[in-house]
Structures are given as C-alpha cells and as structure tokens.
Specification:
By secondary structure, this protein is α+β, with helices and mostly antiparallel strands. The protein has helices at about 15-25, 70-85, 95-100, 160-170, 225-235; strands at about 5-15, 30, 40-45, 50-55, 60-70, 90, 100-110, 115-120, 140, 145, 150-155, 175-180, 190-195, 200-205, 215-220, 240-245, 255-260, 265-270, 280-285, 290. The protein has five helices and 20 strands. The longest helix has 14 residues, at about 225-235.
C-alpha cells in the first residue's frame, strides 16, 4: 500500500469570503492567515499549515485533491507505476510545492478526470488549533500510527471499475466496502482506505457530479461537537443535505451541510478504525443504521 492519507483539498469558490465564514464560524476550522499571490484563503484543523485551500473563481468546484505519501521513495514508485501504465504525470514546480507546503508533488488525472496532487514531505508548522467556535479538536491522527488525513472525500467516477483499478492498483488504496444504496437502482459507491486505520479515505460514486466532488468529511472528537455545529448551521441558515444519522459501514454519526456554492460537507463523530490485516472487504445494501434523511436542493 502506497498512499498514506488524504492531505488537503483545493476548492474553487465564487465567494471566498462566504466560504471562509462557513469554514470558521460553522465548521469551527481556523483561518490559517497565510498570504497568497493568487488570493487564496486557507483553513487549518491541526498541525498542518492548512487542509483546505479556497481559491477565487467564477464558479464553485473541486480543483484538486492532495494525496500524501510516506516518503520520497514511495512517491516516486507510485509515479513510476502511473507512467508505466500510460498516465500523464506532471511534476509540480518548486514554487507551487512551496505554496502547498510540501517537499515535492506531481499532478495526475484519474480515469474520471478528477485532478489528484500526489505529494510527500508535508512541512508542518505545529501551530495548535485555535477554533473560533471552541471546537476541541478534529480527528486527524491516531495514537502512534500518525496521520489519518483531514477526513475523506467522495469523487464521481462513472466508469467505476476502471477508476477502482486505478486507485487500488496504481495509487495504492485498498477496497473496504461496496455500497448499493437502497432504492437507487444502478448506483454504487466503493469505499477505499489508505495506509491508516480510517475506514475509508477515498470513495468513488458511479455517476457524474457538477461540482467534481460528491462530498468531503471532517470528524470531531465528541457527539456534542456535532450537535453544536448543527445549531450553528441552523442559526446561519445553512442548508442541511442530510439530518443527523449514523452510517452502517463506517459507523459515522454525522450531519451533511452545503457550503456556499453547493459543495457538501459531512460533519461527523465516532468513525470506525480498522485493523487492515484482519479485514475482509464488505458489501452493504443499507446506507444508514438510522437517520440521514436527505433533502436535495430543488427536489421536493
């Protein structure tokens, strides 16, 4: 297994100030207050210099997802596999690596056209989280094992088999679970783990999505923190994509909210951690143990 964790995401936003207000005052993330020539703003949740880069644009969408590798050797080995398989890999310039606070990175498109930034050597600054809403901490590490990543993301992948092969055989994820959502004939989600105990770091949905990302997840340390975020979101008039509920496969107790511009953010607690040496990939035909009533915008 190669990839260690999902490190960061770059998000295009038509209203960066609104996204930052949502990120800090609803999610409880910290404004990293980094200077950027391109006008980007940055949100942090732990000792990493940022986890979310919000960049000004005409429309909202996912720009790229950053995948972390444990060493230069593992990173280069992955690039070599991708190149040998016929994928175009573009090395990142030194100044762009500095902007991302990494030692080196390279860009590749997955089979669905999603942009991935593969990197190693994140330059940590160890500034502690000072959440403007008082969030005690986000779940991004585990005991002595190290980084769990910022959480997880779900990407669109209409050709699910080809995309799954790409992530498992070339990027170095492992299949955790396959979900056939009830009442949604033909739809399928495949959940994949990185080299850390989080039940999944990457998931693929066999359909398109106009924003390039189905949702992303951040995890807090207590159920009370989820409830407090829910209250903050209600007070701010945020649209809830899903009410409070608990998933079957990863045990996450969470809500789903729409950020300004429409990207869905899952805010959860109690996600499952797994010993991969003793795990057999599962198949799920139910998405939730309870709750998670979905309310899609414009759908009655």
């Amino acid at each position: 297994m190669s990839v260690s964790a999902v490190g960061y995401v770059r998000i295009a936003s038509a209203d960066v100030a609104a996204w930052m207000d949502f990120g800090t005052n609803v999610l409880g993330l910290m404004d990293a207050q980094r200077k950027d020539a391109g006008g980007a703003r940055f949100l942090r949740m732990d000792e990493h210099p940022f986890r979310f880069m919000i960049e000004p644009a005409d429309a909202d969408k996912l720009i790229a997802a950053g995948l972390e590798f444990p060493s230069a050797a593992a990173w280069q080995s992955t690039i070599d596999r991708l190149t040998a398989a016929g994928h175009a890999v573009t090395p990142g310039a030194a100044e762009d690596a500095q902007r991302r606070c990494v030692s080196a990175f390279a860009t590749v498109l997955d089979p669905a056209g999603n942009t991935l930034e593969l990197y190693w050597g994140r330059l940590l600054d160890y500034v502690p989280l000072a959440s403007p809403t008082g969030v005690s901490g986000f779940v991004t590490s585990y005991q002595q094992i190290g980084d769990l990543g910022f959480g997880h993301f779900v990407l669109p992948a209409p050709d699910l088999d080809t995309a799954t092969d790409f992530y498992t055989q070339l990027i170095g994820t492992g299949l955790t679970d396959t979900l056939y959502p009830p009442g949604m004939d033909g739809l399928q989600i495949r959940f994949m783990h990185a080299n850390n105990p989080r039940q999944h770091s990457v998931a693929l949905f066999n359909g398109p999505h106009p924003l390039g990302i189905v949702h992303m997840m951040v995890e807090v340390q207590t159920l009370d923190e989820v409830g407090k975020a829910m209250r903050r979101a209600q007070q701010a008039g945020v649209h809830f994509l899903a009410t409070l509920g608990r998933h079957v496969n990863d045990n996450m107790c969470s809500i789903y909210m729409l950020a300004p511009g429409g990207i869905a953010v899952e805010y959860g607690y109690d996600g499952l951690l797994i010993d991969w040496e003793n795990h057999v990939p599962t198949i799920s035909v139910e998405g939730d143990l309870w709750g998670h009533e979905y309310h899609f915008p414009g759908v009655n």
